[in-house]
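COMPLEX REQUEST
Ligand: tryptophan
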Amino acid sequence: MKVLSGIQPTGRPHWGNYFGAIQQYIQLQQSEQAFYFIANLHALTTIRDKVLLHQYTRDAALDLLALGLDPNHAVLFVQSDVPELSQLCWLLMSGTPFGLLERCVAYKDKKAKGLTATAGLFTYPVLQAADILAFDSDTVPVGEDQVQHIEVCRDIAASWNAQFGEVFTLPAPKILKETSKVPGTDGEKMSKSYGNTIELFDDAKAMRKKVMRIATDSRPMEDPKDPAGDHLFDLYKLFATSQQLADMEAVYRRGNFGYGEVKKALADAADAFFDVPRQRRAELEAHPERLREILGDGAQKARAKAGQTLRRAQESCGIL
Ligand code: ADP
Ligand code: TRP
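STATUS: Structure written out below.
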């Protein structure tokens, strides 16, 4: 399996980002080949603040390493350190139909939210296709919302192969179905844009405070309750062992409990879960030279691989 995925450095990661996407990166890092990167060129389409973009890029790398990404197994790099990706993007752009990009929901959503419809925002999926194709990736672990972009990538690759010969590998998305829609504190999908997030690297106190604010219904305490579809229970499920979950399910069905107890159990479980990553992150942060070394080494490996694919693509269309 040849795995690749990217994460945009657009803010502090939350539980949804971890359980919907990052968790899979870590699980798949022992594959035959695994490349992960910080998509700072993609983020430039939305973040127009020099200091913030730089800081978020560094933070995203720290987050991934703290959560268990191991540079001895997977290559970690920053997108802009690999100029071959932008070069390949232009080649792909030359054959990408306008209509294919016009149909992309992510673009339409961002425009509807008031972002200026720049050429970068519109052609975002072509750069994403270059990221994927440059590494001959066959498996792209992502959240549900990225599936359309992987389909666009397949279309672009198939059309190139039909015109110029078998240059690119067609990738497939890999989704974690059970955690594809982690609820936020209001019960809607957890998302930065809804202001309902719980961040991965909040300190224990701040995290507990957000957990305590999770919205619940006002049915009487004594009533038995069905855990299915209850977003507080769904959040607990992310962290609890099967025994803890079975016990909590019994409490729900019995009734006579307060949601405060469930929240406390959730906060305790989440706290234990993020304890080691929090410590690892603090250690890494204290050694910026180590991070520079990891990203420098990653960029070198990524350039070597992407360079080969770029040359293949250039030769196939008469550019070299
Ligand atoms: P946000 O919606 O907070 O801006 P992003 O769009 O940056 O998050 O998402 C980054 C990755 O995390 C994507 O792969 C996305 O599918 C995944 N993701 C984001 N929110 C959730 C969620 N609530 N549940 C599951 N996965 C999520
Ligand atoms: N668009 C992805 C997101 O917002 C980030 C990304 C950029 C990506 N290039 C990629 C994901 C290549 C997978 C493969 O989450």
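REMARKS: The mean pLDDT is 96. Strands lie at 2-7, 33-38, 75-78, 139-141, 172-174.
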